[in-house]
Each structure stands twice: as structure tokens, then as C-alpha cells.
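Class prep. Write one:
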Amino acid sequence: MLARINKNYLPAYWNDFFNDEFLSGFNNTGRNETSPAVNIIEDEKEFRIELAVPGLSRKDLKIEVENDLLTVSADQKIKKVEKGTAFRRKEFGHYTFSKSFQLPEMIDQDRIKAHHEAGILSIELPKREE
């Protein structure tokens, strides 16, 4: 990934090139590595994390909790293409991401639930009862 460049050290046209958001989502492995949009919601009883994961199925998603760290990742491989198929344009590919959240002590990790519907992964993080 390209690092952000400080404007004070390079002319503006170089800064715009190195901070190009289009370039930041790709690396030289041919994988599209982006991070899904996230909402974090809190009420009296729980936190809820919502991740936008359109096009991913439940089997593509992995949720792990270890050492108070919740990690959501995905690894979606492209479908096999019939031999002889010629693309005029191809934007679908191998899609992968990993996103981690530090869990506060107030979370009851034994009661964490998740569900996936309409391209949104919702993770419910119940608070411990006082």
C-alpha cells in the first residue's frame, strides 16, 4: 500500500498522486484488499457492529474472538471461468479483507451473536450485567 505523503514536503501534484484512493485498494498480488464500511452502535444493553459486505456469503466470512480482539475477515475466490471466455472488462476478482476491533471489558464474550442479511453483517456484543 502507498503511504500518505505530507503536503509540506512535496508539491501538490505529487501529493495527489500518492494519496490516490483508487491505488490504495490494490497491491501487486492481484487481490483487491479493501476494508468494508462499518457502523458501530451502542445502547444500554449492547454494542452492534455492522459491516457492509455486499456479494459475500456467510461461508466467505470468518469471525474470531481472541484476547479481547474481535476480527472479521473474508476471503472470496472468483468463480472458475470457462476455457475460451474472453473478457472485454474484468473487475471481479479475489476479494479479501481483515478488520479487528478491541473489545472493552464490559462485553460478555460468551453471548456474542452474528447474522448476515442483504449484504450487511451484524455482530451483537452484549454488555455484561452489573
User: Anything to note?
Assistant: The first strand starts at residue 32 and ends at 33.
